[in-house]
Amino acid sequence: MQWVTDPMREFDRMRKMMDKMFSRVPFFGTTEFQFPLVNLYDSRDVLYVVAEVPGVPKENIEINYQDGSLTITGKREFKKYGQSELLRQEQPEGDFEKIIRIPMAIKSNEIKAKFEDGMLTVSLPKTEEAKPRQIAVEF
Length: 139
Fold this sequence. Notes:
Elements: H1 7-23, E1 38-42, E2 46-52, E3 61-66, E4 69-76, E5 94-101, E6 112-116, E7 119-125
Antiparallel strand pairs: 1-2, 2-7, 3-4, 4-5, 6-7
């Protein structure tokens, strides 16, 4: 039999276990792995969103921009191997949605997307107001 000498330490251990358990369930928190993985790049004139979508045909990808958010949705499916049974699955499969908050004003009618080698690149041109500029100090 183990005696608890510090009850607060035991509560902290239980809290960490619960956090770990619920972080894996999308309804209760963020998932451990969110598909697709996304990088955001900022240049002077354009914001680039680059998403890894290996194994997803371009026909299964939809991109929408509305109210300052870029949404990437799609479906990733794997082929079945005859009558085989799946024993282990680490690669996410099924419907996915990624919402990226865009932190600046964008020319929504000029957004372009390119799909190549499992990488989706979305180019979001900035409005003139969103571009950085240097302000001269008057004397």
